[in-house]
Backbone:
């Protein structure tokens, strides 16, 4: 604070400083000694603070403003408080009122239009043209402009499953070419062409497999029996698998531990210990001897032996080549049998090819292995003879169409068979008895 | 010998496949999104031929996709939408967590959506492609439209499915293209012929759902999403092909105007329109009035030989079809409240019948029970209170059997309280020599225009014939119809022989000129004989190998016939036993 004040003083004491109040010289401002008062009291602020300069400045400002507005306004504003009724119009308003008896001249420009003649003519011409039915160019351009679809945003946000959605002829209309193919491709506006191979179906099975005639709600006796037999066979197969599993899991009843065997086991090693050890030791020693004998030292071959071996080798090779030659010569005479053998071979390959093809065809109708799980066919829908309804009203539907559709999708290799994800609890559940229960129990 | 060592699994089939997880990572999608994308785009997993090679030496079962397919998926604009949707869900969750409801609303408003139109166009480049694949779409839509609106899937989806199925049924009615119906224990199978394509679909019975737990509803919903779009576009095209207004409108000047008064009882204004449509009782409005429609005439081409025969067969078939289309025309049906209304109304209207029901059952009934002009009342209960004398009271199975038989069957077997004849599957096509149930035989006889009075004898005759076939040689099969002529010939021959004998013995013959009998040459018979002769010669000329094969085939056929005969005999004994039982019961 003190520093600031000092600065102010210093600035004021400079010779070129102009105060706002020309009467007061900067020198006496600084030199006059002020009475010292406590400045921490509000009372003293009001009494002793020197607000004159501020007030003067404000006055100056007001004066300046009014000077700009009008010269007459300068005097009455001088700070006097208004007395009397407020209903009287202000003097300033009176002054500003128009008091001349001569009417102000008419503003000619307000009634004149620049280029009026030209405009009139153009309007007339336009009218004529309109009567003829000619549309002006500007309007034409407007009309030709492609209409920005305001509703496009709305249709975009329309959900896919909106029940009121509208359809159009998707196959009839040609796709509009929006521009150069290169441009479209680069800006990702053009869709990539779908490979033809993707339109092949992964299975030859029909989409809807109609249930066997025995599945009628009021079936013919024999077709019903046929269906029952099939269902029975399926069940038999299942039972067989189950039985097999059980058999594999079965154990010999005699192997179960009785008290006696348990006791024997516990005592094992305590009785007759010494005898067994001796027996064990004996074979060990034998083994060591065998191991020692196994290391054999190979003798070095003599020069003579080597030479003889080489000669034998060459001789053998010669013999073989000779034999091959004679064989080839002989084949000339065997042409017929060779032909037949070739024919036979071809036949077998053809048969094999046919078989393979048939197998492939059969495979096409089979569900493939597409994931962890194998395809499990659905349980057969069948109603036993006593379950059959006499009339349509009493019919109790068997099986579910939903399941049928789902399995059909799996069977046709459209989706892989899956299991429902099992819920796994990561953290243990802690059992806490609530206090309210605790009190009772 | 030099060169770099080849690395394993860097060429060949290992590079053609990609595992599901890697594909998913490549597309930066979560597993459910990936699955959805694959279903929508029609990209299915593929089982490689050599799993071990593809799986880099491991034999663990994995799901593989073709790498090229996945690369194709990378260009799909919907992938971006899936990612956007993920962000949307995250934002929504956050807003919920902070309980900023205004933010929730704002985020909800900007929910990203996508259209499948371009996928439909891409997967089905022509309309016929789409029509061939419509079976699945129909099944799915019919299934979803029967779901309860309890949150197993979106209510909107169910409504859309319902709308599409109603549109489809109305189309089938308008085009009269239904061919077969089969009531099974699972659901009702329908088959229609639309633009030369046989389309089969299955509709579950109403209210029969117990939701199975081991079905992935999300996958099914995705399929439905695709199929609803497909079905919508297809039905638009079908409607325009018949000059019908799409979305369908009821014909306002039709004579069977549904009553207006009691509409408010059934549905709100917004829904009543669809309800009225789904009642199936009124015809649809056309763009061009139906008066100037022409019957399409089959073009006649000059042709010879086999083509002629084929043409004739085709013409005959067409005629039959035309007759079938007008099966119920002129008949007036009334459905009692206990019969499945929608299915029956659909079937009746498909063949030109008029149908109505009680006012309180459904909207859109056109006449009351008291209408004197009703010809058939469909009923499925043991007895009725008041009966009108000028109408038949029959069980619903009659309608379905009539449709499958393509003729109006005698109503006697389907009267009230009568044990119904079995409902046979029209989807079974018997080959030569298969066992045919007697009911079907009877039906076939009726179709041929024979009277139902002598059916019993006829059956027996046919059986006899079959028996003969078994014993006789193949080539003689054809001429066992006219044995009398044979006998005549034999007699003549005997006469001649006698004369020869007499002459050889040197006796003078008492020659007489007798008036000659005109020998009527049966042309058809001659033709047959010629054919049989040709066949026999052809058999004789066969190579050994072919002959062996032929014999084998014939043996198989004979065996089949034998089995069929056995079954027929069994059936007969069964029927006799039943009859005896009934007689006893009566006594």
Residues:
């Amino acid at each position: 604070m003190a520093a600031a004040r000092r600065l102010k003083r210093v600035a004021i004491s400079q010779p070129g400083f102009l105060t706002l109040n020309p009467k007061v010289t900067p020198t006496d401002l600084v030199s006059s000694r002020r009475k010292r008062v406590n400045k921490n009291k509000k009372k003293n602020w009001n009494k002793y603070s020197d607000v004159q300069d501020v007030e003067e400045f404000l006055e100056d400002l007001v004066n300046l403003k009014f000077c700009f507005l009008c010269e007459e306004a300068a005097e009455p504003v001088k700070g006097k408080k208004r007395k009397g009724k407020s209903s009287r119009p202000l003097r300033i308003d009176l002054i500003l009122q128009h008091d001349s008896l001569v009417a102000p001249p008419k503003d000619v420009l307000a009634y004149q239009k620049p280029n009026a003649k030209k405009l009139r003519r153009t309007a007339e011409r336009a009218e004529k043209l309109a009567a003829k039915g000619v549309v002006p160019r500007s309007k034409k351009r407007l009309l030709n402009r492609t209409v920005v679809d305001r509703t496009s945003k709305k249709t975009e946000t329309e959900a896919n499953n909106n029940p009121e959605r509208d359809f159009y002829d998707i196959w009839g209309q040609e796709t509009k070419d929006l521009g150069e193919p290169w441009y479209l491709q680069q800006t990702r506006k053009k869709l990539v062409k779908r490979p033809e191979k993707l339109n092949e179906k992964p299975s030859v099975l029909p989409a809807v497999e109609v249930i066997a005639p025995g599945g009628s709600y009021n079936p013919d006796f024999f077709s019903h029996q046929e269906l029952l037999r099939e269902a029975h066979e399926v069940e038999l197969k299942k039972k067989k698998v189950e039985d097999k599993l059980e058999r594999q899991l079965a154990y010999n009843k005699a192997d179960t531990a009785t008290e006696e065997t348990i006791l024997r086991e516990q005592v094992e090693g305590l009785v007759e210990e010494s005898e067994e050890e001796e027996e064990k030791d004996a074979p060990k020693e034998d083994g060591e001897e065998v191991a020692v004998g196994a290391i054999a030292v190979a003798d070095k071959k003599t020069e003579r032996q080597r030479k003889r071996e080489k000669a034998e080798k060459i001789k053998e090779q010669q013999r073989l080549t000779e034999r091959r030659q004679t064989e080839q010569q002989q084949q000339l005479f065997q042409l017929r049998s060779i032909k037949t053998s070739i024919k036979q071979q071809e036949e077998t390959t053809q048969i094999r090819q046919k078989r393979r093809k048939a197998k492939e065809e059969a495979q096409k109708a089979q569900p493939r292995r597409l994931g962890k799980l194998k395809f499990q066919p659905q349980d057969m829908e069948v109603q036993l003879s006593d379950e059959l309804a006499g009339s349509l009203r009493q019919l109790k539907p068997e099986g579910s169409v939903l399941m049928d559709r789902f399995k059909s999708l799996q069977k046709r290799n459209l989706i892989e068979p899956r299991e429902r994800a099992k819920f796994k609890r990561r953290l243990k559940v802690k059992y806490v008895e609530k206090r309210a229960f605790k009190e009772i129990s | 010998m030099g060169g770099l060592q080849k690395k394993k699994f860097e060429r060949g089939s290992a590079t053609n496949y990609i595992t599901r997880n890697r594909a998913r990572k490549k597309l930066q999608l979560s597993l459910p999104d990936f699955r959805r994308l694959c279903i929508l785009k029609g990209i299915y997993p593929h089982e490689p031929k050599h799993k071990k090679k593809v799986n880099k030496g491991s034999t663990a079962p994995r799901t593989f996709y073709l790498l090229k397919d996945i690369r194709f998926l990378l260009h799909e604009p919907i992938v971006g939408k899936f990612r956007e949707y993920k962000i949307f869900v995250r934002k929504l969750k956050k807003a919920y967590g902070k309980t900023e409801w205004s933010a929730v609303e704002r985020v909800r408003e900007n929910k990203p959506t996508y259209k499948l139109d371009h996928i439909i166009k891409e997967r089905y480049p022509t309309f016929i492609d789409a029509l061939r694949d419509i079976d699945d779409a129909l099944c799915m839509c019919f299934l979803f439209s029967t779901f309860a609106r309890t949150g197993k899937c979106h209510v909107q989806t169910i409504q859309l499915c319902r709308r599409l199925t109603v549109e489809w049924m109305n189309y089938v009615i308008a085009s009269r293209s239904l061919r077969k119906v089969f009531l099974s224990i699972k659901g009702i199978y329908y088959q229609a012929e639309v633009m030369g394509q046989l389309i089969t679909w299955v509709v579950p019975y109403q209210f029969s759902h117990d939701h199975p737990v081991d079905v992935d509803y999300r996958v099914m919903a995705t399929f439905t999403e695709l199929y609803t779009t497909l079905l919508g576009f297809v039905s638009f095209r079908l409607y325009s092909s018949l000059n019908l207004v799409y979305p369908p409108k009821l014909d306002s000047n039709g004579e069977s105007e549904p009553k207006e008064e009691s509409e408010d009882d059934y549905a709100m204004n917004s829904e009543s329109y669809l309800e009225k449509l789904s009642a199936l009782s009124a015809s649809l409005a056309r763009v061009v009035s139906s008066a100037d429609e022409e019957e399409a005439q089959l073009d006649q081409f000059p042709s010879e030989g086999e083509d002629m025969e084929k043409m004739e067969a085709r013409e005959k078939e067409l005629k039959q079809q035309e007759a079938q289309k007008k099966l119920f025309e002129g008949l007036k049906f009334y459905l009692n409240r206990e019969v499945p209304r929608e299915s029956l109304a659909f079937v009746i209207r498909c063949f030109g019948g008029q149908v109505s029901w009680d006012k309180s059952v459904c909207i859109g009934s056109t006449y009351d029970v008291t209408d004197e002009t009703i010809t058939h009342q469909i009923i499925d209960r043991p007895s009725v209170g008041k009966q009108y004398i000028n109408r038949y009271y029959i069980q619903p199975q009659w309608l379905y059997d009539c449709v499958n038989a393509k003729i109006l069957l005698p109503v006697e077997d389907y009267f009230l309280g009568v044990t119904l004849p079995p409902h046979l599957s029209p989807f079974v096509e018997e080959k030569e020599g298969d066992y045919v149930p007697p009911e079907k035989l009877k039906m076939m006889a009726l179709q041929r225009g024979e009277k139902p009075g002598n059916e019993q004898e006829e059956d027996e005759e046919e059986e006899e014939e079959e028996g003969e076939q078994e014993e006789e040689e193949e080539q003689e099969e054809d001429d066992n119809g006219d044995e009398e002529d044979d006998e005549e010939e034999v007699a003549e021959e005997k006469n001649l022989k006698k004369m020869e004998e007499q002459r050889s013995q040197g006796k003078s013959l008492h020659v007489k000129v007798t008036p000659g009998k005109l020998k009527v040459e049966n042309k058809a018979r001659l033709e047959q004989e010629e054919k049989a002769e040709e066949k026999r010669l052809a058999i004789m000329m066969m190579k050994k190998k072919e002959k062996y094969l032929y014999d084998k085939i014939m043996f198989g056929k004979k065996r089949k016939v034998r089995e069929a005969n056995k079954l027929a005999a069994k059936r007969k004994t069964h029927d006799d036993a039943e009859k005896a039982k009934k007689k006893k019961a009566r006594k």
